[in-house]
Design a protein that fits this description.
- The chain is of the alpha+beta class.
- 36% of the residues lie in helices and 13% in strands.
- It has three helices and six strands, in the order H-H-H-E-E-E-E-E-E.
- The chain has a two-stranded antiparallel sheet with strand order 1-2.
Length: 120
């Protein structure tokens, strides 16, 4: 493709920040994709019970809460590789990609997720 057929769209603001973070993540971490089936009936029952108590909770809230608990239970999963060493983290920071209605994407980081309740 030559320059006369190429369109360049500058990435600014939040979109630029998200793009930079996603690129850094893709180039600095080992990509892992896992597909599996799971019985989530207990998760749905939990959500229904919380909703009956008047608490608003999404499936994503509960999955992220379970992820944080898993990282605390299995600390060898909560680290990074740099300088030919594994650096384990005592704190749990997670990031999740969220699709936006306008075909956009944001990927906020939840710092110190281990100190937050599912509702926070």
């Amino acid at each position: 493709m030559d320059d006369t057929t190429r369109t360049t769209i500058p990435l600014r603001g939040v979109r630029g920040m998200v793009a930079a973070k996603m690129l850094a993540s893709a180039t600095q971490t080992a990509p892992v994709t896992h597909h599996a089936l799971a019985d989530v009936s207990a998760l749905l029952d939990c959500r229904a019970a919380l909703k009956q108590r008047g608490e608003q909770v999404s499936i994503e809230d509960l999955v992220l809460t379970a992820l944080v608990a898993t990282l605390q239970d299995h600390p060898l999963l909560n680290g990074t590789v740099a300088d030919r060493a594994v650096h384990l983290e005592a704190r749990v920071h997670i990031s999740v990609a969220i699709a936006l209605p306008d075909n956009g994407l944001v990927a906020p980081t939840i710092f110190d997720a281990h100190e937050l309740s599912w509702s926070q």
